[in-house]
Amino acid sequence: MAESTTISNTENLMKYLDLPQRGFCMAEYIWIDGTNGVRSKTKTLDKKCTDVKELSEWNFDGSSCDQAPGDNSDVYLRPVRIFPDPFRRGDNILVLCECWDHDGSPNKFNYRHDCARLMEANAKQEPWFGLEQEYTLLGLDGRPYGWPKQGFPAPQGPYYCGVGTGKVYCRDIVEAHYKACLYAGVKIAGVNAEVMPAQWEFQVGPCEGIDLGDQLWMARFLLHRVAEEFGVVITFSPKPIPGDWNGAGLHTNVSTKDMREDGGLKAIEAVMGKLEKRHVEHIAVYGEGNAERMTGQHETASMDKFNWGIADRGASVRIPRQCAAAGKGYFEDRRPASNADPYQITGIVMETMFGGLPD
Ligand code: ADP
Ligand code: MN
Ligand code: MN
Ligand code: MN
Ligand code: MN
């Protein structure tokens, strides 16, 4: 495959981007499909929109997104959040949507709905989440970007937070994504190059309640969309390369109001027993293919049993050293895989801490 035919010609596009739009706006409706990916399509609005409530529902062919059968394929898009669009700029917007079936029930892959209810029911706990999204860049040949065509790069060691040629791959995409997140108002907390070459991490948060899932999904959308222009593929696979190469996770940092107050360590420790009891239920929603990643090596715990520790990066859950020292703060659930759904993760954490939804 010739690379030049698949990389979009952004420079030519620039000429058209600043053409006046005669008062019309473009709204990019974005949703999560049945394969843990994002999809989107564009709608023209006849005026500027500043409140998600002004936006109409829309629909799409669910059978083309693994979300509905072909003989009953309409799935409805209900706008839940709007963000400024860093690609089209101006008054154009990105619209995050929930998916609903024709009978008025949430689509099977609409994990946001229950998550939002759990957050609402426990809003007085003021739950904060900060997620560390690891991911890997792939070339069009499916190999990690910048890796030699044959064989492997030098062993892991110089790449984590690496600086310099041969130590870091594709920083331009990472920078572009960072700017796009800031422009869109996504609460990106930082980025770093990861242990495996061509693997990176960005953090989102701390965000309260349902906001985390919304922001993280928008950050994922922006990453896929930015990488498109560079002809690079983003994978959230938890173990993209077998063997002595680090997998990719989605470390989930959690705190409640009680945990952040003086003496909050007690509240953190009280949750550890609850997490232990529901280890299997958590693992079930912590991503596909996580067993290949959670081997007990490469800074992971074994998937079979729960353990926690202070400053222990080989534990299922870590309490950061500075939190133990301060006697308050947050804990880090290190089990989720990079491809897990943030609504499912934050939802089950809430359920385990505070109980499920009433029927
Ligand atoms: P690590 O040392 O595990 O690599 P990072 O710095 O990558 O940690 O990520 C830690 C994340 O924890 C931050 O990005 C932030 O979003 C989140 N965080 C910080 N304080 C809190 C808190 N009180 N509650 C929840 N999340 C928090
Ligand atoms: Mn059509
Ligand atoms: Mn990190
Ligand atoms: Mn990391
Ligand atoms: Mn971490």
TrEMBL record:
<dbReference type="GO" id="GO:0005737">
    <property type="term" value="C:cytoplasm"/>
</dbReference>
<comment type="similarity">
    <text>Belongs to the glutamine synthetase family.</text>
</comment>
<keyword id="KW-0436">Ligase</keyword>
<dbReference type="InterPro" id="IPR050292">
    <property type="entry name" value="Glutamine_Synthetase"/>
</dbReference>
<comment type="subunit">
    <text>Homooctamer.</text>
</comment>
<dbReference type="Pfam" id="PF03951">
    <property type="entry name" value="Gln-synt_N"/>
</dbReference>
<dbReference type="InterPro" id="IPR014746">
    <property type="entry name" value="Gln_synth/guanido_kin_cat_dom"/>
</dbReference>
<protein>
    <recommendedName>
        <fullName>Glutamine synthetase</fullName>
        <ecNumber>6.3.1.2</ecNumber>
    </recommendedName>
</protein>
<keyword id="KW-0067">ATP-binding</keyword>
<dbReference type="InterPro" id="IPR027302">
    <property type="entry name" value="Gln_synth_N_conserv_site"/>
</dbReference>
<dbReference type="GO" id="GO:0006542">
    <property type="term" value="P:glutamine biosynthetic process"/>
</dbReference>
<dbReference type="InterPro" id="IPR008147">
    <property type="entry name" value="Gln_synt_N"/>
</dbReference>
<dbReference type="InterPro" id="IPR008146">
    <property type="entry name" value="Gln_synth_cat_dom"/>
</dbReference>
<dbReference type="GO" id="GO:0004356">
    <property type="term" value="F:glutamine synthetase activity"/>
</dbReference>
<dbReference type="Pfam" id="PF00120">
    <property type="entry name" value="Gln-synt_C"/>
</dbReference>
<dbReference type="GO" id="GO:0005524">
    <property type="term" value="F:ATP binding"/>
</dbReference>
<dbReference type="InterPro" id="IPR027303">
    <property type="entry name" value="Gln_synth_gly_rich_site"/>
</dbReference>
<feature type="domain" description="GS catalytic">
    <location>
        <begin position="111"/>
        <end position="359"/>
    </location>
</feature>
<dbReference type="InterPro" id="IPR036651">
    <property type="entry name" value="Gln_synt_N_sf"/>
</dbReference>
<keyword id="KW-0547">Nucleotide-binding</keyword>
<feature type="domain" description="GS beta-grasp">
    <location>
        <begin position="22"/>
        <end position="104"/>
    </location>
</feature>
